[in-house]
Amino acid sequence: MTGGNRGLGHEIARRLVQAGQTVWIEARDAGNGRKAADRLGAGFVQLDMIDDASVDAAVETLRARVGHLDILVNNAGILGEVTAPEDLTADQVRHVYETNVFGLVRVTHAFLPLLRKATAPSVVADHAVRQDDPRRPLQCGGRRPDRDRAPGDGGRPDPLAFRPRT
């Protein structure tokens, strides 16, 4: 879970842990990341999604610790400088794109070997998350837990509905 130390990523991680899943969160700041992981009961790996060496080290850590990855939740992202459109320059948004676009691709690509070792791997980006009613299970990837079924679940609703869109 990229960006799992706060905000939406923290909440997704909390719900996954609550559902009995093994969760690893990442954060650029090791101190904040470890504190969040401890609060959640999750594992922690330091990762800066704009740094190839950091991403590679995170992949190797998870390869050594768990051997595979069932779900990669690409949640980390930055807003960048909020500026009037007439004052906005390409240099101001370059870092935003490096993190939110190229970082997402970098992280996804790097974790593909671990995802391919899972029986039913999924990659989720937080823009695909919809939570319009806090009483309902978290919905991701455009599936609805009240109607979509997980493979081999005996027809029960999939409680988290983490499945790729098709």
What gross morphology would you assign? globular
Q: What is the CATH top level name?
A: Alpha Beta
Secondary-structure element pattern, one letter each: HEHEHEHE
Helix content: 25-40%
How do the strands line up in the largest sheet? 1-2
Overall radius of gyration: 17 Å
Number of domains: 1
The CATH homologous superfamily corresponds to NAD(P)-binding Rossmann-like Domain
**What proportion of the residues form beta strands (DSSP E)?**
5-15%
Secondary-structure arrangement, i.e. CATH architecture: 3-Layer(aba) Sandwich
The main sheet comes to: 2 strands, parallel
Number of contiguous helices: 4
Q: Span from first to last CA?
A: 22 Å
> Can you tell me the CATH topology?
Rossmann fold
The structural class is: alpha/beta
The parts where pLDDT drops under 50 for at least 5 residues are 128-153, 156-166
Q: Please count the beta strands (DSSP E, at least 2 residues each).
A: 4
Description:
The structure is a single chain. The protein is an alpha/beta fold and 166 residues long. 38% of the residues lie in helices and 10% in strands. It has one domain: NAD(P)-binding Rossmann-like Domain (Rossmann fold), CATH 3.40.50. Strands 1-2 form a two-stranded parallel sheet. α3 packs parallel to α4. The longest helix is centred in the middle third of the chain and has 26 residues. It is globular, with a radius of gyration of 17 Å. It starts with 6 loop residues before the first helix and ends in a 41-residue tail after the last strand.
